[in-house]
């Protein structure tokens, strides 16, 4: 179905619509009040309910309760009834089964609204403007929907790819679980072997103890036999002496009395010797010879030492066994936690996208997307993709809506109405912003960047076109966050960081350029390894770069790791054939303001070192919620002992947003202080008291 104003409608339909318009217009004229105003339903039917001298869109509340009953009994106007009847007929004649049924259903309402616009002459401009604005909005929404349809298909494809990757990860986890189970079986077998070895050693110890006992019993028996043998030898010796004595007596014929006395004395001595021998036998019957005792004692010591060694090995094996059991238990718990975490991640987390598919929709194809995506994380790739989509949409916009002229609107965006889009390229935007910085530095302007930015555009392009350039530059800066020139200007322009931070970074880079140039005696723009090998080795034997000493001279507080990162970033400019480094090209930028990896790494380290400095400050403040100026000064002096008074006063003024001549300030929340310091130019003055300068 088409609108009445469409050129494709039939003559009969047009005649019918004109007839209805004429009829409605004729009946409308009969409902004019005595004062020439339109009568409002249901007020015209009863004089008691006519609203007199009321303001538009503002009926008193006390009048509603008194007129409520009257409103229910008053009939509708005929003009309203005819419009409703016409609307019902038109809606009934539509075929709502088609794909565009909603657009067909909207057409009768368009016609009714046009009848109102044509008959209400007084409100016709306003109603026409309302209708046109709705039509423009509907067209914009349709255009947006058509633009998002390809992204819907891309999201579906990315979801399927991530599902496949998750399934692959599950298969990989199964293999790892099987490996852990096999390792567990191996450890259990090892433990069983150690138990068997322990039992074998215990058996050997028992066997050795039995052997020692047997040897001890054998030595006791030998000791008893030896005593018996000695007794027999003594008896034989005595008998031999007795026989000899009898023979002597027979030969010499000695005196019998003398011999009898000698025999008596000998028997007494024998009795004493026998008593003494019995006493010694009773006292030392269980004693072994010292030689045997020492031999047995040595053997026992060796066996005891061997047993201690075996016991120590056993204890160590037992400890290792307990450790392995604990590790196995922890591994099993960790495996279960990982499985649960994997299931939770699979259930909650968004699948990783296939970024290669973005090359199909990015201008320039796979080559340009490869350059944009090189070395970037997923979060950075999302930013690149949004930037490409945003810049593409920005080129299609012809005008920007004005932000108004309120106090909260930045001075460079205060404008009523629409603003023309200049459709600048990124190269043009970079050149303009660089020219703004050059102009501000050259003039020494002390005003803020927003005011100077507006005055620069007014001076260069005129007051009339200044807002067009301002809005166009602002939108490009807001979208292109990956470009350092645009992002840094945008952050300073919006007040996220201070202007001194931009000048501080440039000053660091300038100092390094001067240091390298000072070492280039031939002014060739290149440095050889031989020129600075000796001094570089003096500073760091691990850094063999020809300009590492110059980097250390320019940045004496940088750590060895940071210096090595800069050295690695400069390798792309190394001429391997002549061992030369083109240090001038390290500081060059392309036409869109993108710096070389060396300068990008310098800026990254600048931000990282500042964050580390402020993190140490926060740790020093501890659990304080608010901090005053004296405590903040103490914390700065603790983490940076070499800081001078002037720099310290500058940092305090930056933290409390005051001048030096106002030292007494109230306490400020710690988070607010850290945010202000992060936005300004804050960096370490001397080496850290814990690490020192490298």
Mean pLDDT: 77
User: How is the biggest beta sheet arranged?
Assistant: 3 strands, antiparallel
| Strand line-up of the largest beta sheet | 3-5-4
Q: Structural class per helix/strand content?
A: mainly alpha
**Head-to-tail CA distance between termini:** 81 Å
Coiled coil: 177-211, 293-320
InterPro entries: TSNAXIP1_N
Pfam family, one: TSNAXIP1_N
Domain Translin-associated factor X-interacting protein 1 N-terminal: 84-195
Q: How is this structure best summarized?
A:
The protein is mainly α and about 700 residues long. The chain is built from 20 helices and seven strands.
What would the keywords be for this entry?
694 residues; mainly alpha; two-stranded antiparallel sheet; 7 strands; 68% helix; 3% strand; disordered N terminus
What does this entry look like structurally?
There is one protein chain. α10 packs antiparallel against α11 (449-479) and α19 (645-656) crosses α20 (670-679). The strands form three sheets. This protein has a three-stranded antiparallel sheet. A two-stranded antiparallel sheet has the order 1-2. It is mainly alpha-helical and 694 residues long. Among the domains are: 120-240; 288-349; 397-496, no CATH class; 606-679. It has helices at 11-29, 62-73, 78-92, 101-119, 124-252, 256-283, 290-348, 365-373, 378-396, 426-443, 449-479, 484-493, 499-519, 529-539, 548-554, 560-569, 597-621, 629-639, 645-656, 670-679, and strands at 399-401, 418-420, 526-528, 574-575, 580-582, 626-627, 668-669. The longest helix is centred in the N-terminal third of the chain and has 129 residues, at 124-252. Keywords: Coiled coil. Residues 84-195 form the Translin-associated factor X-interacting protein 1 N-terminal domain. Pfam families: TSNAXIP1_N (PF15739). Residues 177-211, 293-320 form a coiled coil.
């Amino acid at each position: 179905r088409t609108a009445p104003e469409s050129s494709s409608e039939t003559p009969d339909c047009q005649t019918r619509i004109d007839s209805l318009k004429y009829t409605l217009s004729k009946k409308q004229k009969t409902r004019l009040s005595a004062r020439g105003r339109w009568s409002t339903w249901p007020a015209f039917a009863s004089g008691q309910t006519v609203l007199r001298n009321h303001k538009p869109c503002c009926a008193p509340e006390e009048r509603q309760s008194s007129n409520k009953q009257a409103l229910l009994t008053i009939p509708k106007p005929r003009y309203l009834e005819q419009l409703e009847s016409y609307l019902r007929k038109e809606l009934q004649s539509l075929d709502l089964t088609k794909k565009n049924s909603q657009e067909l259903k909207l057409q009768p309402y368009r016609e009714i609204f046009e009848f109102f616009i044509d008959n209400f002459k007084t409100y016709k401009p306003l109603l026409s403007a309302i209708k046109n604005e709705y039509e423009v909005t509907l067209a914009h929404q349709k255009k947006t929907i058509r633009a998002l349809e390809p992204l819907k298909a891309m999201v579906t494809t990315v979801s399927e790819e991530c599902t496949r990757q998750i399934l692959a990860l599950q298969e990989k986890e199964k293999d790892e679980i099987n490996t852990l189970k096999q390792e567990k079986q191996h450890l259990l077998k090892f433990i069983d072997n150690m138990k068997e070895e322990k039992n074998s050693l215990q058996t050997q110890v028992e066997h050795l103890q039995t052997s020692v006992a047997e040897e001890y019993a054998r030595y006791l028996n030998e000791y008893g036999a030896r005593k018996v043998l000695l007794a027999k030898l003594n008896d034989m010796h005595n008998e031999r002496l007795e026989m000899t004595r009898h023979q002597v007596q027979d030969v010499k014929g000695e005196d019998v009395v003398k011999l009898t006395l000698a025999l008596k004395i000998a028997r007494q001595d024998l009795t004493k010797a026998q008593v003494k021998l019995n006493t010694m036998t009773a006292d030392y019957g269980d004693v072994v010879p010292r030689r045997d005792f020492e031999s047995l004692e040595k053997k026992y010591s060796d066996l005891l030492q061997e047993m201690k060694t075996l016991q120590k090995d056993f204890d160590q094996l037992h400890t290792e066994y307990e450790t392995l059991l604990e590790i196995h238990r922890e591994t099993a718990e960790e495996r279960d936690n990982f499985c649960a975490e994997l299931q939770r991640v699979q259930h909650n987390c968004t699948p990783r996208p296939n970024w290669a598919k973005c090359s199909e929709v990015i201008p320039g194809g796979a080559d340009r997307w490869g350059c944009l995506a090189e070395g970037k994380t997923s979060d950075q790739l999302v930013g690149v993709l949004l930037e490409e989509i945003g810049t593409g949409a920005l080129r299609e916009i012809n005008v920007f809506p004005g932000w108004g002229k309120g106090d909260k609107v930045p001075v460079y965006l205060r404008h009523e109405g629409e603003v023309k889009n200049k459709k600048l390229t990124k190269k043009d935007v970079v050149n303009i912003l660089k020219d703004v910085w050059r102009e501000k530095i050259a003039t020494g302007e002390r005003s803020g960047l927003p005011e100077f930015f507006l005055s620069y555009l007014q001076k260069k392009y005129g007051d009339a076109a200044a807002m067009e350039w301002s809005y166009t530059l602002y939108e490009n800066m807001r979208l292109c966050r990956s470009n350092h020139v645009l992002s840094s200007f945008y952050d300073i322009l919006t007040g996220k960081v201070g202007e001194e931070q931009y000048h501080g970074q440039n000053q660091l880079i300038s100092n390094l350029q001067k240091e390298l140039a000072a070492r280039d005696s031939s002014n060739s723009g290149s440095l050889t390894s031989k020129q600075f090998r000796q001094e570089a080795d003096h500073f760091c034997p691990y850094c063999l770069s020809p300009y590492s000493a110059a980097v250390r001279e320019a940045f004496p507080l940088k750590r060895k790791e940071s210096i090595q990162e800069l050295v690695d970033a400069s390798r792309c400019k190394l001429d391997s054939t002549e061992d030369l480094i083109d240090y001038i090209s390290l500081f060059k930028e392309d036409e869109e303001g993108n710096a070389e990896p060396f300068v990008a790494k310098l800026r990254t380290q600048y931000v990282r070192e500042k964050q580390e400095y402020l993190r140490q400050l926060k740790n020093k403040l501890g659990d304080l919620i608010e901090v005053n100026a004296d405590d903040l000064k103490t914390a700065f002096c603790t983490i940076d002992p070499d800081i001078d008074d002037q720099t310290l006063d500058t940092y305090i003024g930056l933290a409390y947003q005051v001048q030096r001549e106002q030292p007494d300030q109230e306490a400020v929340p710690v988070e607010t202080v850290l945010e202000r310091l992060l936005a300004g130019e804050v960096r370490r003055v001397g080496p850290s008291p814990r690490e020192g300068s490298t």
